[in-house]
Amino acid sequence: MLNHYTMTSDGKKMPFVISHQVEVPFGFPGAGLYRYLQLTNQGVHCPDCGFWTTKVHEYHPKQVIAGCHNDTPIIDHFNHRRFVCDVCHHTFMEPLPWLKPYQRITVIGRQALLHATADRTFKAVGEAFGRSGQNVRVHVLEDFSQQPELSERSTPLLIGIDEISLAKGKGKYRLVMYDLSIPWRPQLFVMHESRRKDEVIKLLQELPQPERVLAVAIDMWRGYKTAVQTVLPDATVVIDAFHVIQASTKALGEVRKVVQKSLSKEQRDALKRDKDLFAEDFEELTKEQKEQLKQWEKTSPELSQAMHIHQKLRALYRCDDLEEALDLLIDWEKKILDSSLEPFQELLKTVWNWLPEILNRFHYRISNAKTEGKNNQVRTMNQQGFGYSINSLKARMQIKEEKTALLKWRKYQDRCNRRLNQNESRIAS
């Protein structure tokens, strides 16, 4: 039980005290912080004649969602009074300065409801906040509709363009654009129904200040490159490292499948169990995992050769500058030409076709790695709700990004402070 105390909002004294409160922890039925309020003002001015009255006509029990506590709603219970004026005999409900007329949720409570949809479905949030899932969806879409249009937003300096299939590996592809400029800012910039080249061009033309864009990270699809060069001729196109390594991993997998056919059943089963090790960065493997790979190298010269070529390409993104990267690629090309591995011969053609854009990463070290991670978040959201409209999906993702923006900013500050301290220590030593 709590002692009486007075609440404040925006520096103003609120006309109620909390007599007591009960908390039902998250995970239990009816989870929430239940507060029982007592209104402290003895009377009000009549809205018609302006005279002061203290005569209560009747009481209306009211339940209001006031915010969020430990991922559960704060629910206020109180008696809302209807007064009657002694002069004009007009009856009226007592005005509540923290609550809009006819509302059962405060501004802070509505914000808490919106933030709750970042990790839970509309239906689950509605059950927690005593509303229907459709009502929650309406709140979310209303909030999203107030977001500025693409032509009214600040144009990012660095953009990541990718596509997403909500049913991973199949289904219709949608276009997504992310702001890669500032890590702590909400990064989802655009989600569009189609990734066709003409649609991408149209969206890029809507940017209010296209001349601000310095670089755009894409995968190896000509449509994106053509669209960027058409609308943003001064922007540098950067092929995302993730997709280059993904192509190399695919080539390595094809070599493994060919080798697999010549092995015994026990060896085939063992190779399938260890297949994920072949594509990993060798430097990040444990001692036992490295020993496993060495055994497979002895088993198959082709597999050994493919692993070394793959690891060589992975090392490209650990190079410090462009000259070092070019030397490494020349050595990598020589290893492929000296081999008879057809999948890597095809990969070599792909790399040389996109070589300028691949090497542009050493001018602008941007990547769509975070884009891929956020695409997974979007897919998870869609699966939670068994399929959403694109507007609902965009709205939920926007809320999630806004909710975590402050946390990202604090982590970024911590990293900067650690680096600064390390540099100062090195200088001092």
TrEMBL record:
Matches recorded under InterPro entries: Transpos_ISL3, Transposase_DDE
Pfam families: DDE_Tnp_ISL3
Alphabetical UniProt keywords: Coiled coil
Domain called Transposase IS204/IS1001/IS1096/IS1165 DDE: residue spans: 159-396
Coiled coil: 268-299
Stored NCBIfam families: transpos_ISL3
PANTHER family named among the record's database cross-references: TRANSPOSASE FOR INSERTION SEQUENCE ELEMENT IS1557
Protein name: ISL3 family transposase
Organism: Tigheibacillus jepli
